Amino acid sequence: MTPQPEFKCAIVVSDELPTGLAVNAASVLSLTMGHRVEGLVGVDVKDADGVIHPGVIHTPLPILTAPREQVGTIVQTSAAQDEMFFVSFSSLAQGCKTYEEYIDRMAATSTADLASVGVGLYGPRKQVNKLVGSLPLLR
To answer: With left for phi above 0 and alpha for psi between -120 and 50, is residue 55 left, alpha or beta?
Structure first.
């Protein structure tokens, strides 16, 4: 999916997470989005001294909060929308110490048993706004 001006990004984390875990969830989700949404990260830029700086995301990326149940609802609603890219981050994933542990635990867990503690969204502005437009920023 290539970024389009009429598209929007947002990350929503559970308001039940302590600050450190909320920031961890948002970081993991933003890394995945940057990797999976082609062109979301802009080109490298050069400063006045000629030093090149790696590109950063070129669209706003609000980090919002919602009750855990609402995070799960956002995940389910996003899954049903064709143009929406979403990535869910579960409490299972957040509790793993290694990626191998994550792979093993996911293989033994059904989708219905995954509790989402965060979700990253990239999709049509109107659809994203409908899902997250009234949510507060993480503070």
So the answer is: beta
Predicted TM-score (pTM) of this structure: 0.91
Phi-psi bin for 116: left (phi > 0), alpha (psi -120 to 50), beta? beta
Q: Per the structure, how many domains does the chain have?
A: 1
Q: Are 11 and 26 in contact (CB under 8 A)?
A: yes
Q: What is the CATH number of the domain that holds 75?
A: 3.40.1490.10
Domain that holds residue 71: 7-41+53-132
Q: Is 48 part of any domain? A: no
Q: What is the pLDDT of residues 100-133, one digit of tens each?
A: 999 999 999 999 999 999 999 999 999 999 999 9
Residue 50 φ/ψ region, left for φ over 0, alpha for ψ in the -120 to 50 degree band, beta for the rest:
left
CA distance 23 to 17: 9
Q: Is the four-CA dihedral 51, 52, 58, 62 of positive or negative sign?
A: negative
pLDDT tens profile 34-92: 999 998 999 999 999 999 999 999 889 999 999 999 999 999 999 999 899 999 999 99
Q: Does residue 139 lie within any of the structural domains?
A: no
In a domain, 82, yes or no: yes
